[in-house]
Design brief:
The complex is a heterodimer of chains A (85) and B (469).
Chain A lengths: L4 H8 L11 H19 L5 H22 L16
Helix pairs in contact in A: 1-3, 2-3
Chain B lengths: L2 H5 L3 H9 L5 H15 L6 E4 L1 H16 L11 E5 L26 H8 L3 E6 L36 H8 L5 E6 L5 H7 L2 E4 L19 E6 L2 H11 L27 E5 L8 H14 L4 E6 L6 H16 L1 H6 L10 H8 L4 H22 L4 E5 L12 H4 L9 H8 L3 E8 L5 E7 L5 H14 L12
Helix pairs in contact in B: 3-4, 6-7, 8-16, 10-13, 10-15, 13-15
The chains are: A mainly alpha (85), B alpha/beta (469).
Pfam families (chain B): Amidase (PF01425)
Protein name (chain B): Asp-tRNAAsn/Glu-tRNAGln amidotransferase A subunit
Keywords (chain B): Transferase
Chain lengths: 85, 469
């Protein structure tokens, strides 16, 4: 079981309190563009209702990404896996 | 002991009956096979009953035991596995319609290890399709239909190891194997009123298991007691050259009492404020029991990090990669749940940079959690803030306003640390509530000892669901 994407829509409401302001209009435009890509590539496989759900998921993912960006990473912070030979 | 008592007995009790030749592996296997046939479908818990294989294995176990070749506590004990573990020649469906006829010609390492211990496979157990990776939003998310908790058939057995939870709780198997990416052992264990153990990442080989998220997936025991979890974990743990993430660590378990020094347990702040009242009350009652043998530190702040967001980004990226072909081909539309049918299309849009940033944050967060957990033998919290969700209702509408506070399940999975959960009472609609202990990496023995101490003072784990009534 994982955190649902739509949960992030609710969670994002708390973000301004954390000092992070989301430009909802800009995000909505970005979601539209990403949805266009989905429609172009896979639109024939999706109903209108399903496209609506994909849009909700995309919006939630954008909010999640904004949230992750609000946590500081330094240049030398490496990912949590290692390449070894 | 009548057949029903036998079906609900612990592994140690069953092993004793077998060793003393009070019951044969064949008789025991037949008891579980009958119960699987009688209740498996009703609970939405079973994909395949492996009757032929089980009876063959049972006869072999019987011959060996009669000849004095006793392999140990699991010899002759029937079990089930979540249907994401490869079993040679038997369908392994991953709970999903597109893989319904998938058959592998090898066994998962965990299955092989259990066979070597003399255990008997009686069933492949139902699961949420693709272990829930596509974002399902209600209980109807498997081609076998919704899993039902045997405590109340109108409620979900939890996911994604749904069948493992329900089958153990209803006495259809002596124990089961589940998997957890983020909550898939603990949640069904909580909703079904059983004891589940999520091991340290890398302690148990995942060779032959469906991959959802390579850096998060773990396999672990789901049983009727902590002692049973210890017995099963000792059989399945260990380094496996076929899974390069496994660690060279020897896990051996012998039931023993707690060390003389009281374990130090942190009670996490804020975990019950928005929980259901019964969850809160049962948790407070449990703390009083724990205080009899442990040193409790109250109101401990859990490290504040974006646990859920990071886990979600990682599962989306790794899951989309693992099931890329399924998504691109459109076969994903054959999944059952309405959200699963479309989830992949947003998941594949997670960028490489987002994934890498999530993994970079993960390293910092893992270190923070390791440091925090190093101060205690365990931390304690309710496993879930509510009892099982009703079937037919979207999860987010099931219990409005109920929440669990700090995100212990995503945090523990992100850091790859172990946890054990067990029933601690009942809540709404006669559904079980649950308590969890989480500890630092490779602290399974300590967690099991604490859980044993709790279960030796309570009888919640011995309660039986009303399914036979």
């Amino acid at each position: 079981m994982k955190i649902k994407r739509r949960k992030f829509i609710q969670l994002s409401l708390a973000l301004p309190a954390l000092g992070y302001i989301i430009d909802q209009e800009e995000q909505s435009k970005e979601a539209d563009k990403l949805l266009e890509i989905v429609k172009i590539k896979y639109g024939s496989k999706l109903t209108d209702e399903q496209i609506k759900m994909v849009r909700e998921d995309i919006e939630a993912n954008l909010r999640r990404y904004e949230r992750l960006l609000s946590f500081k990473l330094s240049n030398w912070d490496e990912p949590d896996f290692k390449f070894q030979v | 002991m009548n057949e029903k008592d036998v079906a609900f007995a612990s592994i140690r009790q069953l092993a004793d009956l077998i060793k003393r030749k009070k019951i044969s592996p064949v008789e025991l296997t037949k008891i579980y096979l009958e119960r699987l046939k009688k209740y498996g479908e009703k609970l939405g818990a079973v994909v395949t009953i492996t009757e032929e294989l089980a009876l063959r294995q049972a006869r072999q176990a019987e011959r060996e035991i009669m000849a004095g070749k006793y392999r140990g506590l699991l010899h002759g004990i029937p079990f089930g596995v979540k249907d994401l573990l490869a079993t040679k020649g038997i369908p392994t469906t991953w709970g999903a319609e597109p893989y319904r006829n998938q058959i592998f010609d090898y066994n998962a390492t965990v299955v092989e290890k259990l066979y070597n211990a003399g255990a008997i496979l009686v069933a492949k157990l139902a699961m949420v399709e693709l272990a829930g990776g596509m974002g399902y939003d209600d209980a109807d998310a498997s081609f076998t239909g919704p899993g039902r908790t045997p405590w109340n058939l109108n409620y979900w057995s939890g996911g994604s190891s749904s069948g493992s939870g329900a089958a153990v709780a209803a006495g259809l198997v002596a124990f089961a194997i589940g998997s957890e990416t983020s909550g898939s052992i603990l949640t069904p264990s909580a909703f079904c009123g059983i004891t589940g153990l999520r091991p340290t990442y890398g302690l148990v080989s995942r060779f032959g298991a469906m991959a959802l998220s390579w850096t998060l997936d773990k396999l672990g025991p789901m049983c009727r007691s902590a002692d049973d979890c210890g017995i099963v974990l000792s059989a399945i743990a260990g380094y496996d050259p076929k899974d390069e993430t496994t660690i060279k660590f020897s896990f051996e378990y012998n039931r023993k009492t707690l060390p003389r020094k009281k374990p130090k347990i942190a009670v996490i702040k804020g975990t019950t404020e928005k929980a259901q009242p019964e969850v809160r009350k049962n948790f407070e009652d449990s703390l009083r029991v724990l205080a009899e043998f442990a040193e409790l530190e109250y109101e401990v702040e859990f490290p504040d990090h974006p646990w859920g967001a990071v886990v979600s980004a990682i599962v989306d990226a790794e899951g989309a990669s693992a099931f890329y072909d399924l998504i691109l081909s459109g076969e994903i539309s054959k999944l059952r749940n309405k959200r699963d049918k479309v989830g992949g299309y947003s998941m594949i849009q997670v960028t490489a940079v987002e994934y890498l940033n999530a993994m970079r944050l993960r390293k910092k967060m893992r270190k923070a959690l390791e440091e925090f957990l190093s101060r205690y033998d365990a931390i304690v919290a309710p496993t879930r803030a509510s009892v099982a969700y009703p079937i037919g209702v979207d999860f987010d509408k099931a219990y409005p306003g109920v929440g669990g506070g700090p995100a212990l399940i995503p945090a523990g999975n992100l850091a790859g640390v172990p946890a054990i959960c067990m029933p601690n009472g009942f809540g709404q609609n006669n559904l079980p509530t649950s308590i969890q202990f989480m500890g630092k990496a490779l602290s399974e023995k300590t967690l099991i000892q604490i859980a044993n101490a709790y279960q030796s003072r309570t009888d919640w784990h011995l309660k039986r669901p009303p399914i036979d009534d």
